[in-house]
Write a structure and sequence with these properties.
The protein is built from ten helices and nine strands. By secondary structure, it is α/β, with parallel strands linked by helices. The longest helix is centred in the first third of the chain and has 23 residues.
Length: about 270
């Protein structure tokens, strides 16, 4: 097993029982669920333009905290196997068909040899983590500090909580080979359009973006075609960056086929044992 690369921190080996299965937590697990919720978050304090003038003295030091988030994220995720990020609503209940789809998708990705990354929260995120974990795959959650504390869901094997959205979003893109978006709200749309921009501008390559749920996404796609394309704001070829499907098998196939020719080390990661 590769040594923990976080300075001054021993590798965490926490185990918990989920049924008969033993779950191993590795890397910097920062669970904030037991902390009292504050009235603001680190992001809010950074972006607040109406605050006192002492920001002149505090912002340079805040850069070190931002840097630490990147260092911690890179260190924890550097050796994970090839992964796919699944996005979707945190408000989706366990009895909803979209939760079932997320769980089945997580399982299918795990069976295809991919780790599953989510935002680590409830709803569709929990469903995808659960499906991956139940199928013996590697389940990763990248959480975010929010005014309403939700913590990481119980199906996460490796969890990291971030203070800043931009650091978290970097990890989603850097350590994923694809995004699959189930129905979701502003957070899902935020990640979707950032990924589209990165692919369109060729900041990332070999990066399929799959929209799961044709009925849910049809209105957005129609607006893209009839407003953005027809007004010349984007090219017709840009629409082809999106793959839309209702089939879990097709979603996984799109991801797999996009990775043909990638070397085995990138596929399996460099960790000796997961």
């Amino acid at each position: 097993m590769a040594p923990d690369k976080t300075p001054g921190r021993a590798a965490k080996q926490n185990t918990s029982k989920r049924g008969s299965a033993s779950v191993k937590h590795r890397g910097p697990i920062l669970l904030r669920r037991d902390r009292k919720a504050g009235t603001s978050t680190t992001d809010q304090r950074l972006l607040d333009q109406r605050g006192p003038t002492d920001w002149v003295h505090t912002d340079p030091w805040r850069v070190l905290r931002i840097q630490s988030e990147f260092v911690e994220g890179f260190g924890a995720l550097a050796e994970v196997p090839r992964a796919v990020t699944v996005f979707g609503s945190a408000r989706t209940g366990p009895d909803h068909p979209e939760y079932t789809a997320g769980r089945e998708l997580g399982a299918a990705l795990a069976e295809a040899g991919y780790a599953v990354i989510t935002g680590g929260g409830p709803g569709v995120m929990e469903a995808a983590n659960r499906g991956a974990s139940e199928s013996g795959g590697y389940s990763i959650g990248l959480g975010i500090e929010l005014p309403f504390e939700q913590g990481l869901n119980e199906w996460v094997d490796l969890g990291i909580n971030f203070r800043y959205f931009f650091a978290r979003k970097t990890m989603f893109v850097k350590y994923s080979q694809a995004f699959i978006c189930l129905p979701g709200g502003f957070g899902t749309l935020d990640e979707l359009f950032e990924a589209l921009t990165l692919v369109q501008t060729r900041k990332v390559t070999r990066f399929p973006i799959v929209l799961f749920g044709t009925q849910y996404w049809s209105g957005l796609l129609e607006w893209i075609k009839t407003t953005l394309v027809e007004s010349g704001k984007i090219s017709e070829s840009d629409v082809e960056l999106l793959h839309v499907t209702d089939s879990i098998e097709e979603a996984v196939r799109i991801v797999v086929e996009s990775q043909h020719g990638v070397d085995a080390a990138e596929l399996m990661g460099t960790e000796e044992e997961w």
